[in-house]
Structures are given as structure tokens and as C-alpha cells.
Amino acid sequence: MTPTTNALLSIVIPLYNEEENVVLLTEKIKESLESYNYQIIYIDDFSSDRTRKRIIEMNDPKVYLIALKKNYGQSLALAAGIDYAEGEYIITMDGDLQNDPLDIPEMLPYALSGEFDVVTGIRQKRKDSLIKKIPSKIANFLVRRVTKLDIKDNGCALKVFNKDIAKDLNLYGEMHRFITLLAFLEGAQIKQVPVRHHARNAGVSKYGLERVFKVVADMMLLLFIRKYFQRPIHLFGILGVLLIILGVFINIYLLIVKWGFGQDIGTRPLLIFGMMFILAGIQLFTIGIVMELLIRTYYESQNKRPYRIKKITRGGETS
User: Are residues 14 and 97 in the same domain?
Assistant: First the structure.
């Protein structure tokens, strides 16, 4: 399809206890995209307030509500919305009004041109506390140092995706923090655009200081999985072979000591280490083979989504 302003846009927004923001956010999106063909997909991540009721009461045919059966977290809520999205271009943003819908028309031309697969925002003059800024700075630093992606604001939720890239992301856990990196690792061409940032309009932030540690842990997990998930033998097999070689060299050295110099090696700790290295190497190599088989089984048989939907409504009516 040739990119035009008539292309359907899917705005995917995960929500958790945003009853005070969702109506105003919908109005702002309408004002910003009045000349575009769009749908708004709200994913309610099992809110305990009246978020779902507020969305249904709007009775807007452009507004879809996906109500999840329990609280799965932002990544899986986002995955559910992306899976359901019908648009040629998928736009993600937060539901707390810190992202400004007015930035969407300024980002769209880069995606519509076909030159870029992902257009991501760089928040200007962030209105967040240090508790939220510190993890973002750590994540941005790690991404730049460990990968070839020079990302200035990895945590900005406002992004425009080509449909094919978005639907291949396979979000899980809490990987929404590194969604741009995931797209980059899938081969996406990325454009960064300065965007506005506002203080939270209402409600309470869901982030605390523990997010710093989660960011670091998720970053390490992501890089490990992306590098070795499809070929675990490259990690475990190589480590196993190295340990086996080390153990063999130790034992050869001990044999030379015993037969060449007539020394007793039966009580030397080095003999135990040599045997341990060989056994550990064999175990690691075996683990690599077993994981290779598991990965093959996963790709060939897995056809399940990691979330469950309670119901879907459009314009206040259940579909």
C-alpha cells in the first residue's frame, strides 16, 4: 500500500487506573487527528477504578476497549493492543497525558514517507521526578554502549511503527522499556523526533525506585536473549568446550608430572579441578544441545499468546 493520509492509524494505549485522564486524552487525540483515518485502542490492564466505565460511556465508534482478565503489566497490555490493531501504522503512547497527541501529526510524515520503520519521540524538558529520570538515563547509556543504536530517549512511549515491525516485536515480561531496541534488532530503520512532555494530569505514577534495578536486569536479559535465544549452543557449547579443553590440559600436565617426574598426583587439588572442568564442560555442552532442541520445539509448536482477554467493546458495545 502506498503511504497516504488515508491510511488507517491505530493508536494503542495501555491503561491502569486512568479514569481521570482517559476522556480528556480521547478528546485531545480527536483534535490532533481530525484529518486522519484512525482508531483508538485502549487496553485496560485490570484497573481497580472506573477506567473501563469511562471508556464505555464515551460511546465512540472510533474507540475500542480491550479488557484483560487480570493485571499482566504494561508490556503484555501493549502486546494485546498491537495484536488487535488493524492500522497500516501503529502509534503507541501512555495514558497519563504526559505524551502530547499534537506531536503525532509531526511524527507521521517520517513514517508515511516509507523511509523509516519506527519514529520515536525524544522528550524535551521532561517533567518527571529523578526516580523516573535515573532509570531512563541508565537504560539510554547501556543501549548506546552495548549496541549500535544511538538512542537519546529509550523510554519515550510515543512512537509510530510500521505495522509489520510492530507485529513482529513479541513483547513479554517488561520489555516495553526497550521496544525501540527490539525494533532495531529486528532490522528497523529508526528516526528520532523531539516531542513535548507534560507533567501527569491526574492519578498516581506506577513507578518507584525499584525500577532502576528492573531496567538494568531487563537490559541484560534482553541482550542475552537476542544474542543467544535462537542459538544457545553458541553460548553453552563454547563455554563447555573451553572448560573441557582446560580440564584436559590440566590432566595432561598432571600426567607429565606423574610419569615424567615420578611425583604423586593423587592428593593434589589440581587433579580434582581438572576432572571438575571436564565434567562441567560436558554438562554445559549437553545443556546447549538440549536448549537447541527446546528452541526448535518452541518455534514449531508454540501458537499461544501470553495474555487472556475478558471482552472487547467498540463504541460502548461488546463485540
Answer: yes
